[in-house]
Every structure is written in structure tokens, then in C-alpha cells.
Design brief:
Elements (H helix, E strand, L loop, with lengths): L6 E6 L12 E6 L5 H8 L18 E5 L4 E4 L10 H16 L4 E9 L6 H13 L3 E6 L6 H14 L8 E3 L8 H12 L2
Parallel strand pairs: 2-4, 2-5, 5-6, 6-7
Antiparallel strand pairs: 1-3, 3-4
């Protein structure tokens, strides 16, 4: 896996636009504004390959980034209140269309903001992946925003909050200082080079 080979491949706004699955894929899932695009940029040592926005709900498409041996897939953020019901249904159809397609999906990185208790939407997504037997790990974003004491408190809380998902791997991550990036790259290499 050569991270420097990464290019933006395409955006799909409806499930009929999803490309054929010709490479192993790693998908990024999470609420709007949890930091999916920032994570992708940090992993690929790029600043603007994946577009970031201060406005939640901007990623309304499934975005594909192609590397030499795999694809990274940025799924639309969920849980943003200020979108129409029609748009919310389109996002839902698109995400389900992606998961229901016959894809070589090796892993989902489920992003949760380390500062907050998982939302109802987060739990629904985690339950969905367990039900569908989709392999996933949890990435706790924005880890740099907490001091040592707050961080220890939140990590302990996550043990309880995610107790129903026994054995799930949780990796604290910061797009600002790169914490967790090498661990995530190692995991992506392991699952896509098997």
C-alpha cells in the first residue's frame, strides 16, 4: 500500500453510480462533522485530498479514493438535523446501497468523537454492522481536544458505553498531531494485504 499513490476517484450520489468493486475497500463511517475527511487526509499525508468543512452534512456522496492496492471509501455523515427528509432518505439509500452491494469490504472505521457519548445514530450504525457481520473498529477522533484527566474519564466511559460490542478495538486519533495514524495504517495494511 503506497499512500502517495492516492487519488480522488469519484463521488456517487445514488447507489446506481457506485463503481464496481475491483479492489479491497476500507470504509469510513460516522456522524456529520466527526472528522472523516480529516482522518483520510492525515492517513494519506495530504491536506486537501478529502474535502473538509466546518459545516456539518457537507459529505452527501460516497467518495472513493484509490490507492495502488485498495480503495478508501468516505461514506456520508449521518445524524445531521438540518437536512430535509428527502435528503436524509437519499443518504440512507446510498449508504445501504453501498453495504448491500457485493463489495470487497475489508473493514469499516467507525468514527466517534472522544468527547461525547455515542448518539442513537452511532449505536444504530454499530448494531447494523454487528447484525450484518461487517468487520469494524472504532476510531475516537479529536483526541487532542481533551487533557489527560478528561481523556482517561472518557476512555473509561467508552468501555461502558460500548460494552455491548465486546472486544471492539478502539483507537484514539488526532488529525492535528497524528496520534493513532500509524496504528490505523498498520491495521489497514493487515486487512487489505491478506
Amino acid at each position: 500500500m503506497n499512500i502517495h499513490s492516492a487519488t480522488f476517484e469519484l463521488s456517487a450520489g445514488i447507489s446506481g453510480q457506485l463503481p464496481a468493486s475491483t479492489l479491497p475497500e476500507v470504509a469510513f463511517s460516522g456522524r456529520s462533522n466527526v472528522g472523516k475527511s480529516s482522518l483520510i487526509n492525515r492517513l494519506l499525508s495530504r491536506k486537501t485530498l478529502a474535502r473538509t468543512s466546518a459545516t456539518p452534512g457537507k459529505t452527501a456522496t460516497v467518495n472513493f479514493y484509490r490507492l495502488d492496492t485498495l480503495r478508501l471509501v468516505d461514506l456520508p455523515g449521518y445524524g445531521y438535523a438540518k437536512v430535509s427528509d428527502h435528503e436524509r432518505r437519499r443518504w440512507s439509500e446510498l449508504i445501504e446501497g453501498y453495504f448491500n452491494d457485493d463489495r470487497d469490504l475489508r473493514l469499516v472505521l467507525q468514527l466517534l468523537d472522544i468527547r461525547h457519548t455515542p448518539s442513537k445514530d452511532d449505536y444504530q450504525m454499530l448494531d447494523y454492522m454487528v447484525e450484518r457481520e461487517i468487520p469494524f473498529i472504532v476510531v475516537l477522533t479529536k483526541a487532542d481536544k481533551l487533557n489527560k484527566t478528561e481523556r482517561a474519564k472518557r476512555l473509561a466511559a467508552f468501555e461502558e458505553e460500548l460494552a455491548d460490542f465486546e472486544g471492539v478495538t478502539c483507537i484514539p486519533f488526532s488529525a492535528t498531531n497524528g496520534e493513532g495514524a500509524n496504528d490505523l495504517l498498520d491495521i489497514i495494511r493487515q486487512v487489505t494485504e491478506e
